[in-house]
Amino acid sequence: AMAAAGAPARALLPTVLLLFLAVAEAQVDPMSNGAVTSALNAKLKKLTDAFAPQVKRELGYCIQDTYWDATFNFSSDPKFLVDCMKKGDLPQRVCTAAELKFYFESILRRGKKNYVRPNKNCNLSSWIDGCEPGWGCTADAGKEVDLQDAENFPSRTVDCQGCCPGFFCPRGLTCMIPCPLGAYCPQSTLNKTTGVCDPYNYQPPPGQPNHTCGGADRWSDVMSTDDVFCPAGYYCPSPILKIDCSSGFYCRKGSTIQTKCLSKGSCKPNSTTQDITIFGAMLVVALSLVLLIIYNFSDQLLTNREKKQAKSREAAVRLAKETVQARERWRSAKDVAKKHAAGLQTSLTRTFSRKKSLSSHESSKGGGVPHPPEQHRADHPSEESGEKNTGSPTAEVGGDKKKKGGKHAHTQSQIFQYAYGQIEKEKALEQNSNNLSLSGVVAMATDEDLRQRPRIEIAFKDITLTLKGSKKKLLRSVSGKLMPGRVAAVMGPSGAGKTTLLSAIAGKATGCATTGTILINGKQEPIRAYKKIIGFVPQDDIVHGNLTVQENLWFNARCRLPVEMSQAEKVLVVERVIESLGLQPVRDSMVGTVEKRGISGGQRKRVNVGLEMVMEPSVLILDEPTSGLDSASSLLLLRALRREAMEGVNISMVVHQPSYTLYNMFDDLILLAKGGMPVYHGPVKKVEEYFKGLGIVVPDRVNPPDYYIDILEGIVKLDTNAVNVKDLPLRWMLHNGYEVPRDMLQSSSGSESSLSGEAGGHAPQAEAKKSVLGELWGNLRDILGQKKDEYDYNKSSEDLSNRRTPGKLRQYKYYLGRCGKQRLRESSIQGVDFLILGLAGICLGTLAKVSDESFGALGYTYTVIAVSLLCMIGALRSFSLEKIHYWRERAAGMSSLAYFMSKDTIDHFNTIVKPIVYLSMFYFFNNPRSSIWENYVVLVAVVYCVTGIGYTFAIFFQPGSAQLWSALLPVVLTLFSNEQKDSVFANLCYTKWALEAFVIANAQRYSGVWLITRCGSLVKMGYDIDHKITCILVLAANGIVFRCIAFFCMVIFQKH
Prior knowledge:
Shape: elongated
Oligomer: single chain
Largest sheet: 6 strands, mixed
Distance between the termini: 61 Å
Helix content: 40-55%
Number of helices: 37
Structural class: alpha/beta
Radius of gyration: 46 Å
Number of domains: 6
C-alpha cells in the first residue's frame, strides 16, 4: 500500500514545494523584517530550483509552467506573509520536503480522513498542541532547518501556536504550508453552538482552555473537503481576503478575480455563474439566418441560371425555326422564279425560231449565213449550274462556315444557336427525304469535317460461361457476329441467358470461367480496352432522382465525351439525344425518387437509355430497354436507336415480347433456348424462312417472336412432323457448320428417352453425393471470383478506344457541382439533422451540468455519444443511397477518386456547421469553464472522425446494418475506453481521445487551489494536460484513416 501511494505522493510533493518560488520573488516590504525575508527568500529559491526537474518529470501530466504564476504568485498582495513573519521565525515553522511528502502520502492513503499517520513529533507517546489541526510549532532552538531534506523530520516542539492566516496546518504535523491562490484561509473562530472552529470542521481539544481555534487544517481535492476553497459568489485575491462579487460580474468557486458577465443585467451581486442561454438562442437564430441566406442565394442563383439558359434555348429554337422557314420560303420562291424563267425562255425560243425560219428563208434567197442554235445557252452558262448548287441544303448543313461557328461559339446564346440550327437542318433533311431511316444523319455523316465514330465489329465463337465454384453452365457454345450499323435483338424465354450473353460480350460477366473466342474488328483484343466507347444500359433505371433530366444527361456527357470536344458540340450531342428521345417537355423536371414523384416511368426509362447515348458510343448494349413502355414510347426509343445505328453504332438489346412493328425494325435476331444455347442468329427477314425449313410455321395473325418464345417455353406443342424443341440448338449448329459439343450430340432426340431415364435414375444419387460444405465452398468461390473479375474490369489500364476523357481533377469539378446541387435540394433533410442536434444539445446541456470535481466529464461523455451517433447516421446518406449509381459510373470509366473526394468535400459543410448547431445549445445551457472556441475545435475533430467511420459503414454494410453499427459503436467504444483506460484497445478508440480533449480543455481553466483536484482527476482518468493538440491530431488521423478504408472498400467491394 505504501508503494502504491508513494508514486502519486511524490508527484504531488513538488506542487507544494514550488509555491515558494513566488515567495522568493515577492516584493516584501524591506522595512518590516528585511534580514529575515532575504534569508527566507534565498533558502526557498534554492529549494524550488532543486525541485524544478522533478516537477517537470513527475507532474507534467497535470501542471504546465504557465500555471505557476497563477497559483502561487503572491506578489500582488504579500501582506499575509509579512504578518506571519512578524509573529515569529517563519522559516523555522514552514514544512520541509520530508514533512510535505509525509502529509500527501497520508492524505492519498487515507482519502477523506483529516489526519496523518503517527510521526516523530506527533505519536501515541507525544502529542503536543502543535499536533492539533490548525496549529503548528517552531523548530527546537539551535537546530537549523534544511527545507530540502526529504528524509528526516526536524524536531518541532516549542512555541506552539495557531497557524498563520494564509497558511494551513494539518492535524498530526507541527509545521505550516502556505495556501494557494484561490483559497481562503482566514483565522478560524469558535462557534459556541456547535463547538466547531468556523469556517473549518475541526474542534479544539477538550480540557485545554488555552488552546484556541487556529488556522486552516488542510488543503486537498474538492471532493474530500472544500474548506479552503474561495466560496462561489466571492473572489479571493489573496488567501486571507474574501470580497463579494459585484453586480454585473460572476465568481465561480476558487476564483481570484471576478469575471464580467456578457450582459450586465443578467448577473446580480454574489452571482456564482451567468445565464447565457439567451446568447445560445441568439446564435441559433443568427446561424439559421445565415443558412437561409446561403440557401436562398444559392437556390436563386441556380434558378436564375436555369431561367437564363431556358430563355437562350427558346430564343435559339425560335431563331432556328425561323431560319428554316425562311430557307423554305426562299427555296419556294426560287422554284417559282425558275418556272417563270423557263416559260419565258420557251416563248422567246418560239419567237426567235419563227424569226430564224424567216431569216433562213430569206437567206436562202439572198445567200445569208445561219446562226448556231446553241448561242443562247452559251450566253447564259450559269443558270443550270445555279440550279444544281442551290437546289439542295445538304451543302449548308456541314459547311465550313457553320462548323467554324460551332467551334468558336463561347456564349450560351451562340452555343444554343449552333446546336438548334444543326438540329433543325437535320429535321429538314429527314422531311425532304423519302427514306424513313433517317437519311439526314447519313447525309451529315458524309460531310468531310464531321467527326466519325470508330466502328467496332464483335465476332464471338463457341462462347461458354461456367460459374467457377458450382460449375453451372450459363451459356453453351454461342457463336455469332454483331455488326456496326445494325440493331440486333436478343430474345428467348426466362433463364435463357440473354443478359448473360450481352454481359459476356461487354466483358462484364464476372465470377465465371469463359471459354471461346471474342474478336474485335477481326483481332483478338480485350473488350475491356474499349469500355470508354461502350455503352451499357442496365435493366434497372439507375438515374439520379434529385437531378433534372437535362442535368443527368449533361453530367454524363461532360464526363464521358472526348476532352478535346468543344462545348458547343457537347451541347449539340445532348440536345440531339433529348430531341430524339422525346424528352423536350420534361427536360427541366426532376427525375424523382420513391419518396418524391417526378417524371413518368417511361420517361425515366428513356433517360436511362439517354445516359449512354450522350457519350456517343461505338457499341451500345441495352438490357430490356422497352420493358414497361407503351407501344408509342417503345417506337420512339427504337427510332432513336435506329438513328444511332445509322451513324455506325453496333447496337444489341434484350427485348421481351416486341410488337410486330418493333420486331420488323430490328436488323438481326439472336434467339436463345433455356440453358444459354443458340437457336437462331441472323437477319430478321430470314427467321421465318429458316424455321419453316424445320417444319415450324407461324400461324396467321400471330406475332413471330411471341410464337417462337412460346415454343421454347414449351407452351406451344409442335406437330409430330416438326423437329423436336430440344434439338433446335443442335440443328442451328449443324446448319451453320459449327462444332457441336459431344454432350449435345448424345442428348439428341434419337437417344432422348433412354438418356432421360438414366438421368432420372442417377440424378438424385448424384445430388446426394454432393456435400453441404462442397456447395458452400463452390458458392464462396463464385463470390470471390466475381469480386476479382469486377476489380480487374474496373482497373484495366489498357485503352484502345482512342478517346481521351476528362482527367480526375476535371471530373472532381463536375462531381462537386452535382453533389452541391443534390445537397441543396436536400436542405429539408439537413434542417431536420440540425434540429435534432440542437434538441440533443439542449437536453444534454440541461441534464448533465458541469461538475467541478470531474471537469464536466459526464456531459462531455454524453456529447461524444450523441454527436457521434447523429453525425455518423447523417454521413450514411452520402454513400448508402448511391451505391448502384456509383457502380454504373465506375463501370463506364469515371474516376472513383473524384467521386469520393467530391462527396467528402461537400460533407465538410456539415463538419463545420453541425458543431456550431450543437454547441449553440449545449455550451450555453451547460456553461463549462472552457471557451466555446476550444469546444468547437474539439467537436469539429470529432465530427470529422465519425464522418469517416460513417463512410466505411455506408460502403461496407447494407443500409440497415450500417445504421445499427452507427448506433452501437459510439456507446460500446465509450464504455470500453472508460473502463479499460490503460489497454491498447482503449488507445485505438476515438472516444477516448475525444473525451480527453474535452476534459483537458476544461481542466486547463482550473488553477490555483484546484491543482490537487486537477492532478487527482487527471491521474484517475489517465489523461495528460499537454495532450490536447495530440488528441485533436489523433481524431483527425482517425478520420483520414477511415476515409482511406472507406475508399478501399468502395473500390474493392461491389454488389453481388
